[in-house]
Amino acid sequence: MKYFALLLSVITMLITTGEVKAQVASEETRENIVVDGLAYVIFKNAKTAAVIPNYYYDDNKELHLLCDPYAGDIAVPATITVEGVDYTVTELAEDAFWASDVTSLSLPSTIKKLGTNSIVFCTELKKVNIPASVEEISDGVFGICGEITDFTLDEGNSHFIMESDMLMTADKKRLIHLFYARDENKTVNVSFPTTITAIDNYALAFCRSVKEIKLHEGVEKIGRYAFAWCSLSSIEIPSSVTYLGEGFAAVNEGLKKISVAEGNTCCKLVDNVLYDADMKFLYMVLPGINNIDIAETVTKIGKHGIEETELETLVIPDSVKEIDVQAIINNPKLKTVVIGSGMESAEIMALDENESLEAIYLRRETPADIKYDLFEDEYYDKVTLYVPTGTKGAYALAPYWGKFKTIEEFTPTALHHVKAETKGVEEQIYSVDGSRCTTLHRGLNILRSQGETRKVMSH
Questions:
Q1: How confident is the model at residue 59 (pLDDT cuts 50, 70, 90)?
Q2: Pairing assessment for the beta strands 336-339 and 359-362 based on DSSP bridges
Q3: Which of 77, 104, 361, 416 has the most CB within a 10 Å radius?
Q4: How far is Cα 268 from Cα 277, in angstroms, rounded to an integer?
Q5: What letter would DSSP give residue 98?
Q6: Can you tell me the distance from the alpha carbon of 41 to that of 335, in angstroms, rounded to the nearest whole number?
Q7: 404 within 8 A of 384, measured Cβ to Cβ
Q8: Do the Cβ atoms of 368 and 343 come closer than 8 Å?
């Protein structure tokens, strides 16, 4: 559950920084309005309305509250009356009930569309229905609403079907969500219909009962966080998959095997690391491993990319420009992280929940312009930030880098620039754990000679 609480805190930060946006009236024929505790955008010409979040952001990313947060039992009306004019409620707009405390949601027979993320992260939601009138359910709907115990697809809906607790399009080509699989003490082995070609974002997220899935040839899309927080021990990605979403298998602590079918052109597995086909994007590292060499072609480490490993030292090559949200998280033995000179951005909580973390080494000469905390505040006090010689002052003044209580300097040196002798006296080489080495190794090296000690980075 700590992962879930952390994820919700990240969502909250994204909302407060304006990254999550509600629908805003931008035309003369549209207007935001509140009726009986629900916010709507009304379309005056069409005489229709859509439920929107209880807030919106203006063009300057300023937050404006429209009404109190949504909570409890909500019954969306079929029509609302504004200044004597009736408007038919036909839609839940994007993010309408995102991360709300709604416990039940009753939708009217006028609803035609459930917008993107309109019902997502509703952790208190237990009861919801889809009326026969609904024609469109956008990607991600019902994601991480794991407490639902009463889901109804109203009779007469010709666009969707419920089978084996799976909500799908009527043609069984798209899996929207799997219900009733939250209990980790139960076992659900999922076999998808062979007609399925797309698995939505969050489709099985937090389905802790799911111990095994069988992905058939023909599946083309696996959405973001599609199998996150399940209890999987292995995943085989079919050759037919052409789209693989970030975090698709995040937080499966018991995951022991990932395989990619021959002929897949979307991704490749190299030394227990899953990359995209060009090896520029790192999807994930197999949990439990204690040693990795990230390919020097990688430019981005994706969400939950390096998680639940046994790594003690992590070296990120100079090619990496971006470290995504919670990309390096919950590696209990991780003590040292070396970040290459190419890093340009690190997203919210990029390095959080690594409880043994002691040191971060930056090879970049000028501070990267990061806009979010790397981890929770307690880590800034206990983790030492090492920066290139002569740059301590700049880092101390830079946003977020300056939060580190201890900043020290070191000399980043490429392998071909380092010699094992100094002035004819052999230097003793040690790893960060104090073990004596005969040669320099990739990562941080400690060199001692004539009573002096220096730290050297090799790559």
A1: confident
A2: parallel
A3: 361
A4: 6
A5: T
A6: 50
A7: yes
A8: yes
Tally of CB atoms within 10 A around 344: 13
∠ CA 229-104-35, rounded to 5°: 125
First to last CA, the chain: 37
Number of helices (H) and strands (E), helices first, in the chain?
3, 42
3-state secondary structure of 305: coil
Question: Beta strands of 148-253 (E only): which ranges?
Answer: 150-153, 160-163, 166-169, 174-178, 188-191, 198-199, 210-214, 221-222, 234-237, 243-244
Residues 6+ apart with CB under 8 A from 21: 56, 57, 95
**Quick one: how far is CA 150 from the chain centroid?**
28
For the segment 18-31, what is each residue's pLDDT rounded down to a tens digit? 444 444 444 447 79
Position 151 scores a pLDDT of 97
Phi, psi of 410 (to 5 degrees): -150, 175
Report pLDDT digits (tens) over 312-356: 999 999 999 999 999 999 999 999 999 999 999 999 999 999 999
Structure tokens at 66: 């429209």
Q: Is the alpha carbon torsion for 100, 101, 103, 106 positive or negative?
A: negative
